[in-house]
Amino acid sequence: MIIKVNDQVTEHNFAQETYGDILTFLDEKAEKAGQIIVAITLNGQSVGADHVVSLAANPCQPDDGLEIRTQPIRFMRVDAISILLGLTDAMRSNPDAERVAALKADTVEFRNRYSGLFSAEENSFIDSLLETLRSVPEENLATCHDKLEQVRLFFSERLAEAEDPRLAMVKTTALFQSLFDDLGTVSVRLQTGKDRAAMHTMVVIVELINKTVRILPDFIAVLPDSRDLRIDNQTIQEFYDNFNGVLRELMTAFEHKDSVLIGDLAEYEIRPRMAVFFKAIDALIGQEQAC
User: Fold this and answer.
1) How many C-beta atoms surround the C-beta of residue 178 within 10 A?
2) 3-state SS class at 196
């Protein structure tokens, strides 16, 4: 049996397996690569979503030919986020009550259709928007403008990340560099009455770390050489496994309002680790530009 994924023959022994086994294997493999299956063809015939279930139980045949098409999940996220931003923009354009009712229904349908593409945090923003829309009569939608703007700003950032993860990482690197000196003075500021400025730095750096983790899979996907990226002689996985212990300690320090530990972690753990990480990222981007 010949199996092709995006025109490339797949190396795997599928003897005595069902199509369900094969499709599950290919789906899991695609997901690990940040891809999603968008088309299935069997012996030259397209297999629709409604026929996949009935096909799954059938054993594969030696003379069959199965072709799979995948695309990056981020492409689907770009489409989905663009639809959501279109909905929020339409709501912000002062539509009449009938149009508002239709937009509310479209937003509910959007949540049901696309929720699987979003993280828990992202879905919480959509749910919050829906809750606000449910509580406001169609003729008073203007009172939702603050919520609509909040959702628009949040998802505009996510859209930019999905459209160009390389550029998003470049901007994140620059942001870290702008915070580098501030991270080294968090401890001093916490001990000299400048708590608000120090904690602002920490909030921003935590957001930056979250953003980096969010962007990284797509960044790796668009820069092939990044798959072998090493950070201080560690793989990316090893680096984050070690770093997670520091982040857990930071969260505990926040919970206990331990300003001494927060300052020490910022200066002696987070600052040097992130500096090494972004140095490796910067070198990789520079290498890619030189090619």
Assistant:
1) 10
2) helix
